[in-house]
Amino acid sequence: MDDVDAPHRASFGLSLLVALGWYATVIAAVFVGRSGMPAAPNRDCSAAFSCLTPQEEIGLAMILGAPILVGLLFITLVVTGLLARRVPSSILAGTLSALGSVVVAVVVGAVWQGVR
To answer: For burial by CB atoms within 10 Å, which of 8, 16, 86, 108 has the most?
Structure first.
């Protein structure tokens, strides 16, 4: 009768997989949405990067987005470690860590731009 169950903790690994799943979902959604857009018939190719093929757009997005993604993954590791101790569900901990990582990255980016 006096036995009290220890509070359940979320698994760090499962929480991290959920957060990475959210990132993969967003990347896939952007890719699918971008690939379904038809090209404008009268394009002006005088501006830089205005007439890229879909493969070139993906390559450019990977080059520009890789540092951001690496930063988000690092922040996600830290936030998941903090949340997995306090939240009982791995799904909730992973979702909150992905959302929290994006919020932290936006705040750090805003502060960085304000200081410069």
So the answer is: 16
First to last CA, the chain: 61
pLDDT digits (tens, 9 = 90+) for 36-58: 777 667 777 777 777 877 778 88
Could you give the angle at the alpha carbon of 36 between the alpha carbons of 30 and 38, nearest 5°? 125
CA distances from 108 to 33, 104, 114 (A): 28, 6, 10
Q: Measuring CA to CA, which residue among 37, 36, 31, 38 is closest to residue 62?
A: 31
Neighbouring CB atoms inside 10 A of 65's CB total 13
Output the CA angle 14-16-19, nearest 5 degrees: 115
Q: What is the largest CA-CA distance in the chain?
A: 78
Q: Please state, in angstroms and rounded to a whole number, the distance separating the CA atoms of residues 107 and 35.
A: 30
Question: CA 52 to CA 41: how far, in whole Å?
Answer: 14
Q: Are 60 and 54 in contact (CB under 8 A)?
A: no
Assess contact for 22 and 94: CB atoms under 8 A.
yes
